[in-house]
Design goal:
Strand content: 35-45%
Number of strands: 26
Order of helices and strands: EEEEEEEEEEEEEEEEEEEEEEEHHHHEEE
């Protein structure tokens, strides 16, 4: 490939040195049935295609030392059947290599990824310390994942320190648990105390979903990062999820490297075309169906709707209710009702009823909720005051 560029050693303002080449270098790609290896003079990256859909299984700085990464990929979790669907267990249905102006882009396809078509594009640029990763998940049919994990990173042995904008934490201070530390940060870096090198993962395009990120530690002291999204919805045919993050290899401080990775933005990806059934549908027919549904809702009896699934009244009250959890004031008897909630799968009603009562006045919206619990003797409260994973109680 004619991909050469003279790159000089560069130091960032914060004092961190991003690894860079001091001589001309051409991106080199070696491909076999088992893996694709890419070397750009800054790092050597290896992507597995024998057992996974292009999982990153090695990221080794050219300055020496071992790999910083043991595995990096995406996964889904389904409550129905309690099953995980992971890139690490699915072979690609297609792999493409495209030359860019200053590097290469690898595109991996997996046509059956938990009801999605997964497309992943990984861009490696000549003489750059960054590896850009962009994803598209497209639903050809209905699918309902409980969790989407855009980035599941397992560090290599010897990478023993977590760094975020809030500070540093050695592995020895983290509990041995895959979900040991719930954390929210703009970026996550993992460094080797012995070698002084590290890798930072920086989200640059992220879906608008409820998210929780976890730092874990294995029994052999390897650190991990699980970036989890809770969709809380059913994905219909044609729906998509897109996300992108950048990895950057660095020496010294992590903050400047992470800042550079954030400023670089997402890497390129050739998105899949729209799902055929959606793309070929008659727009007039689709909009007509929508109008019928809206008309039906508009003409329905509000009292009937308040006992159903989609719409509720929210009456005005002149009596401000006490926020004591009792719902025993007279005003609550006039409240709008929302009930018959679905399970998170969206395919069945919850057996134990949850009923929400709605009121409003000039200053606020009041929501009172009654939750039936037939197994009170099994209720537990593990979450501590002030927060925690209350959904596990």
């Amino acid at each position: 490939m004619k991909l050469t560029q003279a790159v000089l050693l560069s130091c960032l303002a914060a004092g961190a040195m991003i690894l860079a080449a001091v001589a001309a270098w051409a991106v080199q790609v070696e491909r076999s049935d088992a893996e694709i290896a890419v070397d750009n003079g800054i790092f050597a990256a290896v992507f597995d295609v024998s057992e996974s859909c292009g999982n990153l299984v090695s990221l080794q700085p050219e300055t020496g030392g071992d790999s910083l990464v043991a595995r990096l990929g995406a996964s889904l979790y389904f409550t129905e059947g309690e099953r995980w669907v992971a890139e690490s267990r699915l072979k690609p249905t297609g792999v493409a290599l495209a030359e860019t102006a200053d590097g290469v882009t690898l595109t991996f396809d997996c046509a059956e990824f938990g009801g999605f078509h997964l497309r992943k594009a990984v861009t490696v640029r000549d003489g750059s310390p960054m590896l850009q990763v962009a994803y598209q998940l497209q639903a050809p049919a209905e699918t309902t994942p409980h969790l989407i994990v855009p980035a599941g990173l397992s560090c290599a042995a010897g990478v023993d320190r977590l760094v975020t904008a809030s500070g540093e934490l050695p592995a020895s201070d983290i509990e041995v648990n895959s979900l040991a530390l719930e954390i929210k940060a703009d970026w996550y870096a993992f460094t080797s105390s012995a070698a002084g090198r590290g890798v930072a993962l920086v989200p640059v395009t992220w879906p608008q979903m409820y998210k929780i990120n976890y730092i874990g530690r294995s029994e052999d002291d390897r650190l991990s990062l699980a970036m989890r999204l809770h969709p809380m919805r059913v994905f219909e045919p044609g729906d998509e999820v897109r996300f992108a993050y950048n990895l950057v290899v660095f020496e010294g401080e992590a903050a400047a490297a992470a800042q550079a990775a954030a400023q670089a933005g997402p890497g390129p990806i050739d998105y899949l075309p729209p799902v055929a059934a959606v793309a070929s549908a008659d727009p007039a027919e689709l909009s007509a169906g929508l109008r019928v549904r809206v008309a039906a809702v508009a003409s329905a009896d509000p009292a009937e709707l308040s006992a159903g699934l989609r719409v509720s009244n929210c009456p005005r009250t002149d009596e401000q209710p006490q926020l004591d959890g009792m719902l025993d004031e007279a005003c609550w008897q006039q409240a709008g009702i929302m009930d018959r909630f679905l399970l998170i799968s969206g395919k069945a009603f919850a057996e134990a009823a949850t009923v929400s009562h709605l009121l409003h006045d000039d200053t606020g919206l009041y929501v009172g909720v009654r939750c039936e619990e037939p197994l009170m003797d099994q209720v537990r409260t593990d979450a501590l005051p002030g927060g925690g994973r209350v959904w596990t109680d």
